[in-house]
Specification:
- The protein has 5 helices and 2 strands.
- By secondary structure, it is mostly helical.
- The chain has a domain at 2-39.
- The model has no long low-confidence stretch (mean pLDDT 75).
């Protein structure tokens, strides 16, 4: 069944025995497996993978720092999540 989902080769599916196929009617099984809506319910291990296409790359967006770490009067603080606090 997984091989049929990959190559859609009906001839190969028809040559399988009922024990290998585990379904009484190979033509009906092929019809069901070709249905995109039914394929969505198949386990991820046998259904075809979702094709991914990258979006247009726009590069990095410049960001402005929220504070200057070299600003006078700014010291390291372990209590502040940002790590800095203004000394008073």
């Amino acid at each position: 069944m997984a091989q049929f989902l990959q190559d859609d080769d009906l001839g190969r599916l028809l040559t399988l025995s009922q024990e290998e196929l585990a379904y009484p009617d190979p033509m009906f099984l092929a019809t069901c497996l070709r249905n995109e809506q039914l394929r969505a319910f198949l386990p991820a291990s046998i259904r075809p993978s979702v094709g991914l296409t990258p979006r247009r790359a726009s590069g990095f967006r410049p960001c402005k720092p929220r504070f200057d770490i070299y600003e006078p009067g700014v010291e390291r603080s372990s209590g502040n999540p940002a790590g800095y606090s203004k000394s008073v």
